[in-house]
Specification:
- Chain A: Keywords: Heme, Iron, Metal-binding.
- Chain A: This is Cytochrome C oxidase, cbb3-type, subunit III.
- Chain A: InterPro entries: Cyt_c-like_dom, Cyt_c-like_dom_sf, Cytochrome_c-type_DH.
- Chain A: It holds the Pfam family Cytochrom_C.
- Chain A: It comes from Pontibacter chinhatensis.
- The complex is a heterodimer of chains A (136) and B (227).
- Chain A has a single domain, classed as Cytochrome Bc1 Complex, Chain D, domain 2.
- Helices cover 49% and strands 4% of the residues of chain A.
- Chain A is built from seven helices and two strands, in the order αααααββαα.
- In chain A, a hairpin with a 2-residue loop joins β1 and β2.
- In chain A, α2 crosses α6, α5 packs across α6 and α6 crosses α7.
- In chain A, 25% of the residues are buried.
- Chain B has a domain of 158 residues: Glutaredoxin, CATH 3.40.30.
- With 227 residues, chain B is of the alpha+beta class.
- Chain B has five helices and eleven strands; from the N terminus they run αβββββαβαβαββββα.
- In chain B, a hairpin with a 7-residue loop joins β8 and β9.
- The longest helix of chain B has 30 residues.
- The chains are: A mainly alpha (136), B alpha+beta (227).
- At the A-B interface, loops of A face α2 and α3 of B.
């Protein structure tokens, strides 16, 4: 009887912690990271800036370069790229984020701003990050 | 009981009437154009004698003469903005922080006054060594702007930092700031006499809305002033 009670308490405690996890800021981590690191250039709505900064909203590049995105976030990029048929050439600074942060950030971008692309798993991002091209 | 009711009814009516009357007056007032913008910066009173009487004139802070080069290698001076209202800001093309937002907001001002030759935009680079004419040209082309309306300026670094002070803008070279320079994201509204008439946070849409609404106040003022 006494043991039953203990198990109940433990289970309740577990349920409570799991449940509260759903309501922490972690759920919005991708959005938070976007606002912190990307928004000032790619804008609130992912529209970018004319011919200077490429859009993320409905951007074909997110699909065609899906496997390159984790490394681009971590190490930045420069040189000419084409997004939705428009040429852009502006250096993007990298942000040294952890693999789980990059996963959340990419999943936020891939499923917002009119994008409806498949999500990444953490393992997938970790593997992609391991094969980043050598830093400039 | 009924007396009290009566009283409150009377007061209520009176208050209602007063409110109505005041709105009537108020609407009359706002109908006539009486809104003016403040004049920023230091001012000094200057006394002079006219017909034996002492008159006090106020000398307002004025943006001094300047000479910079724009994205088309054209010289831009006080003559370029003579008799015009202009909006000024400070940025640099490689700025990773607030500049893209400032530029997206300045584009809204550009679009709003694209067809009005009496409004000009001047964006000063605070990193003129990097932001050469060629770099500014590429930047302007990618924004899709016309030089005659929106001049991107480069020039002698000291001259640019000196003129920034005249706009009461905070800019400095700062190795600790992202991109190497720290600066305020403000837009400055300058009137036909090169006086500062407004400053707005160039990263905030609401503030830039206010700027877009303030510009006509200066444009209409031109006809009344003879100075």
């Amino acid at each position: 009887m006494r043991q039953n009670k203990l198990v109940m308490v433990a289970m309740a405690g577990f349920a409570l912690t799991t449940l509260t996890q759903c309501f922490t800021k972690k759920k919005d981590e991708g959005k938070r990271l976007y606002e912190q690191h990307c928004q000032s250039c790619h804008m609130d709505d992912g529209s970018g800036l004319k011919g200077l900064i490429p859009p993320l909203a409905n951007a074909d590049y997110l699909q065609t370069h899906r496997d390159a995105l984790p490394c681009i976030i971590r190490h930045g990029m420069d040189g000419s790229i084409i997004v939705n048929g428009v040429e852009y050439n502006k250096e993007m600074p990298g942000v040294d984020l952890r693999a789980d942060h990059i996963t959340n950030l990419l999943n936020y971008i891939q499923t917002n701003f009119g994008n409806n692309n498949p999500r990444y798993t953490l393992t997938e991002v970790q593997e992609l990050l391991e094969s980043c091209p050598p830093e400039r | 009981m009924s007396k009290r009711n009566n009283l409150s009814l009377k007061t209520g009516l009176a208050a209602g009437f007063l409110a109505l009357a005041s709105t009537a007056f108020y609407s009359c007032d706002s109908g006539s154009k009486s809104t003016t913008l403040p004049i920023y910066g230091e001012r000094e009173p200057v006394e002079r004698v006219v017909n034996g009487e002492t008159v006090v004139d106020t000398i307002y802070h004025q943006i001094p003469d300047f000479a910079f080069v724009d994205q088309d290698s054209q010289l831009v001076t006080q003559e370029t903005v003579a008799g015009k209202v202009y909006v000024s800001d400070f940025f640099f093309t490689s700025c990773p922080t607030i500049c893209p937002k400032m530029k997206s907001q300045m584009l809204r001002v550009y679009e709003a006054y694209k067809d009005n030759p009496n409004v000009v935009l001047l964006s000063h680079s605070i990193d003129p060594d990097h932001d050469t004419v060629a770099v500014l040209k590429d930047y302007a082309d990618r924004l899709g702007i016309e030089t005659a309306k929106w001049h991107m300026l480069t020039g002698d670094m000291d001259s640019i930092y000196d003129i920034a002070k005249q706009y009461l803008a905070a800019v400095e070279e700062d190795a600790n700031a992202e991109g190497g320079f720290s600066h305020s994201g403000d837009f400055y509204l300058i009137d036909q006499q090169r006086r500062i008439r407004g400053h707005y946070n160039g990263t905030l849409e609401e503030d830039v809305d206010r700027l877009i609404k303030d510009i006509p106040l200066l444009l209409s003022q031109k006809e009344h002033e003879t100075k």
